[in-house]
């Protein structure tokens, strides 16, 4: 039996093993093909433009107003609860 670093390069190397064993990490990195940066850049730009088109602007308004609505509901419920408890306490006296 050989050590872990003597695995054949056509075998799949688990990411965890590549993190633990520096020799396997270097072999795995060396086995990767060089990326075509123009293609990578084009994909990133395409995804970014598609995300910008897909995200409607009208959804941002409710996202910005939601904390205000929650705070208003909390304020009104606390105020009405305090008023109700005050009226109950006054009626008991």
Query: Helix and strand string, N-terminal first?
Result: HHHH
Give Rg in angstroms. 31 Å
First-last Cα distance: 89 Å
Mean pLDDT comes to 82
Morphology call: elongated
Our estimate of the beta-strand percent is: under 5%
The number of strands is 0
Helix content: over 70%
**Uncertain segments:** none
Largest sheet report? none
* Number of H/I helices: 4
Concise overview:
This protein is mainly α and 93 residues long. It is built from four helices and no strands.
What does this structure look like?
The model has no long low-confidence stretch (mean pLDDT 82). The protein has helices spanning 15-20, 22-31, 37-54, 60-92. The protein is mainly α and 93 residues long. It contains 4 helices and no strands.
Task: Name a few traits of the molecule.
mainly alpha, 93 residues
Question: What's the helix and strand layout?
Answer:
Elements: H1 15-20, H2 22-31, H3 37-54, H4 60-92
């Amino acid at each position: 039996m050989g050590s872990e670093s003597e695995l054949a390069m056509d075998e799949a190397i688990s990411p965890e093993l590549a993190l633990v064993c520096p020799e396997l990490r270097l072999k795995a990195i060396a086995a990767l093909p060089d990326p075509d940066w123009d293609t990578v850049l084009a994909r990133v730009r395409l995804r970014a433009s598609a995300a910008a088109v897909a995200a409607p602007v009208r959804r941002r308004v409710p996202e910005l107003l939601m904390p205000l609505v929650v705070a208003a509901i909390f304020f009104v419920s606390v105020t009405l609860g305090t008023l109700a408890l005050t009226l109950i306490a006054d009626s008991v006296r």
